[in-house]
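User: My collaborator sent over this chain with a note saying "see what the structure looks like." That's all I know about it. Can you take a look?
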Amino acid sequence: MAVQALSTVAATSKSINQLNCRGPDSFLWTKNPLEPKNPQCQWLGTPIKFSLQSKNFKQFLSKQCTIRANVSFVLPRGKPEPTVPIDKIPKWSAKAVKSFTMAELEARKFKYATTGTEALILGMLIEGTNFASKYLRANSITLLKFREETIKIVGKGDFYYCSPKEPPLTEDAQKALDWAFDEKLNSGDSGEITTTHVLLGVWSQQGSPGYKVLAALGFNDEKAKELENVISDPGFVDD
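Assistant: Without extra context I'll predict from the sequence alone. Here is the result:
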């Protein structure tokens, strides 16, 4: 058995030597492992010449493919889409979309099963750079105060409750977003729907948790009217 094994190894070694794949010209040997070599093995027949030089790709690399895309984000809507040309439908500002995302996260943090009007306000305060949050802070309505008042009025959810990944909107919150959308659409302005529209939408839902918290912290109809005058400016942007 041992002799037979040694014979097999010897035969295998002889076969490998006959392939002539151990010399400098073979495809298995090179000083630089990254240097391309032309195959010279008998098994491959006629040598195949190829090169990985970048010059072969100059024409390909010189061509630049420019991709342009317009991405628009749409917040949930509780009404049928308006029968107006698509270019007339107002778009949500990036800060309004980000604030909405923060609102969902805040609702989950409070262990709520839904995203309410109070969460919409918390979302814009967390985002922090939008006009509505700046206006609220200028009137002493800060994120910490709003959180504390929310817990007093709404409470916190069960500690062991696992909120949905995207807590659905309450009826009041959906109406607030619809109010913001309709207000912008009816204005005829080509601008975006901002967090200020959402803030006024929440204020329009009297009796909702967000309305109660705002009122408890000093927001009133006079301030709402002031904001309405601000967003009525055609050049108003959410910053």
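A starting point for your reply to your collaborator: The chain is about 50% helix and 0% strand.
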